[in-house]
Amino acid sequence: MKFFATKTMIQAKPEVIWSLLTNAADYPTWNSTVDRVDGQVAPGERITVHASAAKGRAFPLTVQSFDAPRRMVWSGGMPLGLFSGRRTFTLTPQQDGVVEFSMREEFTGLLAPLITKSIPDLQPAFDTFAADLKRRAEQGR
Question: Which runs of consecutive H residues, i.e. helices, occur in the chain?
Fold first, then answer.
């Protein structure tokens, strides 16, 4: 199973970080890896992410899991489970008031071995996403 993951420590309250992750309209103001997010980031909602690294491509996703302000899962893919991507955002408060932010996306399905060969290295974009989130959250703490 192919996956990408990143994590960082953020000096901000979980609610501040969560509000950034769930405010679709504001993504372009703080996240250099996202051109825009259409829809509402809420339980069961459909959203469309327009990523900077994939100009001209839109990724329709569903907010599958939503446990504010701790964990959220976005997923999308092909019918019949032929190929799917699942992105999990996790906020874990630490004893010192810092929050560990982690983001992981894994690709599964019958066609995953074939399709993932054409997926570029997303690690730099994941690391930039985390750094952008940290920067903005720590400004607004």
Answer: 14-22, 27-30, 112-115, 123-139
Class of domain 2-139: alpha beta
What pTM value is reported for the model?
0.94
Where are the chain's structural domains? 2-139
Q: Are 34 and 26 in contact (CB under 8 A)?
A: no
Dihedral Cα 122, 124, 129, 130, nearest 10 deg: 120
pLDDT band of 124, cuts 50, 70, 90: very high
Helices (H), 5-85: 14-22, 27-30
User: In angstroms, what is the C-alpha Rg of the chain?
Assistant: 15
The span from the CA of 1 to the CA of 114, in Å, is: 11
